[in-house]
Design brief:
This protein has 268 residues and is α/β, with parallel strands linked by helices. The chain has a single domain, classed as 3-Layer(aba) Sandwich (Rossmann fold), CATH 3.40.50. The protein contains 10 helices and 7 strands. The strands form 2 sheets. The chain has a 5-stranded parallel β-sheet with strand order 1-2-3-7-6, with helices on both faces. Strands 4-5 form a two-stranded antiparallel sheet. The longest helix is centred in the N-terminal third of the chain and has 18 residues.
């Protein structure tokens, strides 16, 4: 899993440098979460109606999702290599194409959890074993529709729904705490009736444990994953600049050199 997380960052960097587009910092912060989900947490193939579903609500991090779908053999190489080209299915935000692992149109922030709640509710009504995982950003919690969906999920006891919060502390215009942060994330989700787990979002063992834990609470699950924007490249980490910018020239080469070196800290 740690090798996959590092490989995804390398893929993202090459995709974004080649096309001069994409959200590198946001994709890097979510890479380890995707690595764990696609290393055995998600059940079923795209062809199976009762498969688990992943919705990347923070659609601007789509490059990381495309990269993991390609590495897992779900997305064909020709499609993957068309990222950000004229007429391609693969834009800056995911478009619905379940046959290649894209379960929803996302990018209008805040809408992934309502979509996921609806899918989880439908699965309950159909007595389906399908589970729904939604990855959303901490900045998305500024949106009121997120909390409508949170209430809906708790009211209907959607224990087949898991929201993973990519809590990197930075959104498009600044630090999350400076923009709209009335209380700690965990306290908010607990108050809305969710079963909450806090983890290091770059520790694969912690992520695996939280995402595979058998849910006996009859509540939807919120995994607050504390992450670092730009994780893996020292000059990108915790820097708002890399929300929109793509590295070029020596910056690109320096970033690739760092990503070629395994991290010092052991991970699961």
């Amino acid at each position: 899993m740690k090798d996959l997380g590092r490989s995804l960052r390398q893929d993202v960097l090459m995709m974004c440098e080649r096309t001069s587009t994409g959200h590198v910092g946001s994709a890097f912060s979510v890479a380890d979460i995707l690595a764990v989900l696609y290393s055995g947490v998600l059940r079923g193939s795209p062809a199976e109606p009762e498969r688990d579903r992943l919705i990347l609500s923070k659609g601007h991090a789509s490059a990381a999702l495309y990269a993991v779908l390609h590495r897992k053999g779900i997305m064909p190489t020709a499609l993957y290599e068309s990222f950000a080209q004229n007429g391609s299915l693969l834009g800056h935000h995911p478009h619905y194409a379940p046959e290649v692992g894209l379960e929803a149109n996302t990018g209008s922030l805040g809408h992934g959890l309502p979509l996921g709640g609806g899918l989880a509710y439908a699965a309950k009504l159909q007595c389906s074993p399908s589970r729904v995982f939604v990855i959303q950003s901490d900045g998305e919690t500024n949106e009121g529709v997120v909390w409508e969906a949170a209430m809906f999920a708790a009211h209907h006891h959607l224990d087949n729904l898991c929201m993973i919060l990519d809590d990197n502390g930075i959104q498009a215009m600044g630090n999350t705490r400076d923009i709209l942060f009335p209380s700690e994330h965990a306290a908010r989700w607990q108050a809305f009736g969710w079963d909450v787990h806090e983890v290091d979002g770059h520790d694969h063992a912690q992520l695996w444990e939280a995402l595979t834990l058998r849910n006996l609470t009859k509540k939807p699950v919120a995994v607050i994953a504390h992450t670092i924007k730009g994780k893996g490249v020292s000059f990108m980490e915790n820097q708002l600049l890399w929300h929109y910018r793509q590295p070029k020239g020596e910056e690109f080469l320096a970033a690739m050199r760092e990503l070629a070196t395994p991290p010092d800290r052991p991970q699961g």
